[in-house]
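Sample 1 of the test manifest.
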Amino acid sequence: MTQQEWPLWEVFIRSKQGLDHKHVGSLHAADAAMAVQNARDVYTRRLEGVSIWVVESKHIHASNPDDAEAFFDPAADKVYRHPTFYEVPDSIKHM
Amino acid sequence: MLTQDFTNATATSATEPSLLFPFVLQLADTSLILAHRLSEWCGHGPILEQDLAMANIALDLLGEARSYYQYAAELEGKGRTEDDLAYLRSAVEYRNPLLVEQPNGDFAHTVVRQFLFDNYHYHLLKALKDGPDTHLAGIAEKSFKEAAYHLKWSSEWIIRLGDGTAESWQRLDKAIAALWRFAGELTTPAPAETALQEIGVVPDYATLLPAMQAYAAQVLAEATVPEPTAVFAQQGGKIGRHSEHLGYLLSELQYMQRTYPGMTW
């Protein structure tokens, strides 16, 4: 028996037509085809989805938690970036 | 191309129940026994994801078996329930083909057993769902989608094992040598099936074989394993002559009902 572990994959499931794929968890598989099939068996047993995406975990690059302050705090006091300071003409509906 | 035609079918849902009963029971036993075998992997699978995959297939087959047992109980009309049929018959009364009672062995044995069954099951259901017995057609219609997935699963594993490492190739080759002899019984009609084939309720298995054989040959070729030739077909299960394995299996499967008759939970 080879001791080599199968790579880890992240699984994204879309629950209904038109909604986005949401991260639901991870699993091991030898390749993409097996990962999709494993995802079907592990994550859609209770009618959770209509579509599956998988991506090998090593291809996901994340921000470093240590950078959180520098990355995200500066946006806290810049409310003017929200498009809420415009007068919406009465004739524009459904805004 | 599968061209099963039921034009000579004289029967509808009103097929003589005593003719239909043994066949429906055979389908029920077949799915139940294979479901039990697969469930033996639960907690022992080679990897979590495949542990779950086999449990899923087992549950599909168990659900299918229940539908058949309920229908069989109705056809028999003697007041027996699905549980009576599943839990309170002895090994010689079981009508499943020998293939499905064969032990799990290693993963390759389980995959080969599943592949031989799935290839037959898929093509049988494909024909039965258009058959003249509406109740049977209804069960087949629902189970056909599940069988299509099972066949995809087992085919892909045959290919992965065959086209994998030297060891996986060897194990697959061994499993094929051990189990191919049980494939013939699946499409060799027992008396109960012949009677129904004559009135067009069950497809003539000769019409299923070309598609089954072509598919198996294609998968084995992709798996780079040779297909066994001139295999003697072991049979007997469908008329109650079983291998020793079934007795052990049933003693575990039936333990609770035998020990605590009528228990529910």
